[in-house]
Specification:
CATH topology of the largest domain: TIM Barrel
Largest sheet: 8 strands, mixed
Number of strands: 16
Number of helices: 10
Shape: elongated
Distance between the termini: 16 Å
Length: 356
């Protein structure tokens, strides 16, 4: 059976290898990895692969994704702080959720009571990145209210770094998280078994064996699928960075000028484009567009291919300098960054092909 393009070629053996390496590195540092599944939309085939390698908890930002994993035997963590309106679904489909708003936690308590369930939460602390989290000076007052709530169990503290403000996880900010955890345990005579020290941007500290003692969980997505840490955007030794490749088919290949002819207005996205005169070029069109990808995150495997741009459904390439002679119907392959992979996985028009 022929492949349908565009498609994502997903190498399950490489993903399994990356999972084993991440578990090994984390365990050497006393850290339990949670694999975040959002970049591949909690695809069941991929999730089964990583769970079979020994992952005990998976996380996702969308409750709809966690619903798909109901039958998979692992803990489920909601990694985006919940909407109050989805509290009932959170209690039903997530074992644990990250939280920062007392009002939402109260609603989770109410729903957990209705379902006769115990819902575990990790309280998020804002250590300077200015996304979600309680400010450190408000933590004790917040915890005082949380521990009064029925059917809610506070199991730890967490933080998120680099995703919004670009703040790098380091010894000083992660140690602050550990110190807050110790302070809460002493103040309220409770145990908080989890200190969740961030995402793939904290993974470089695992690799370097510099992660502060007491940080015992990381939420990892990009390191798994792209084999890189995100603090300094470096590829990681012994991890594959090509476990998922995007493939698209050439639907037109013609020699055309490099400059449009006529008065230039705005393109389909409201931007006014500019062009450089490079003379005639071999221009290819791939059946793939901005509805499916993040254009800036796309890199052809053939380094002599230049990306010219894209509209909603067409990706334009310059093949002039290519040594290989392409023809209509040929397949062009691309590496993706995290944002581009996220878009491609989310698109209904990009097919998934699994290599077992």
């Amino acid at each position: 059976m022929s492949k349908a393009y565009p498609c994502l070629d997903i190498d399950l053996k490489k993903l399994a290898h990356n999972t084993r390496e991440i578990i090994k590195l984390c365990h050497e540092n006393g850290v339990e990895p949670v694999i975040v599944t959002k970049v591949f939309c909690a695809n069941e085939t991929i999730v089964k692969t990583i769970v079979n390698e020994g992952i005990n908890t998976v996380g996702d930002s969308r409750i709809k994704n966690l619903m798909k994993l109901k039958q998979i035997n692992c803990k489920k963590l909601l990694v985006r702080i919940p909407m109050k309106s989805e509290a009932d679904s959170v209690v039903q489909y997530a074992d644990i959720s990250l939280n920062s708003e007392l009002e939402v936690i109260k609603e989770l308590s109410h729903c957990a009571l209705n379902h006769n369930k115990l819902h575990e939460i990790i309280l998020m602390i804002d250590l300077g990145d200015l996304r979600e989290g309680v400010l450190p000076q408000d933590v004790l007052d917040t915890v005082k209210e949380i521990i009064k709530l029925p059917n809610i169990k506070l199991i730890g503290l967490g933080t998120n770094l680099t995703c919004y403000g670009g703040v790098i996880p380091e010894e000083n900010n992660l140690t602050e998280l550990v110190n807050l955890k110790n302070k809460i345990e002493e103040e309220f005579n409770i145990k908080l078994p989890i200190v969740s020290g961030g995402n793939s941007s904290s993974f470089y500290m695992v690799v370097n064996h510099t992660i502060p003692k007491g940080v015992n969980q990381l939420r990892i997505g990009e390191a798994l699928v792209l084999g890189r840490e995100t603090a300094f955007e470096k590829d990681l030794n012994n991890l594959y960075n090509d476990s998922i490749i995007l493939k698209g088919e050439i639907i037109e290949l013609k020699e055309k000028p490099s400059l449009p002819k006529g008065r230039i207005g705005v393109d389909a996205f409201g931007n006014k484009p500019s062009f450089q005169d490079k003379g005639l070029m071999q221009r290819a069109i791939i059946a793939l567009g901005k509805q499916d990808i993040l254009l800036e995150g796309l890199t052809p495997l053939d380094s002599k291919i230049e990306i010219l741009g894209a509209s909603s459904d067409h990706l334009l390439l310059d093949l002039t300098k290519c040594g290989k002679e392409y023809k209509v119907g040929d397949i062009v392959e691309f590496h993706m960054n995290y944002g581009c992979l996220l878009a491609a996985m989310t698109s209904n028009y990009v097919n998934l092909e699994f290599k077992i």
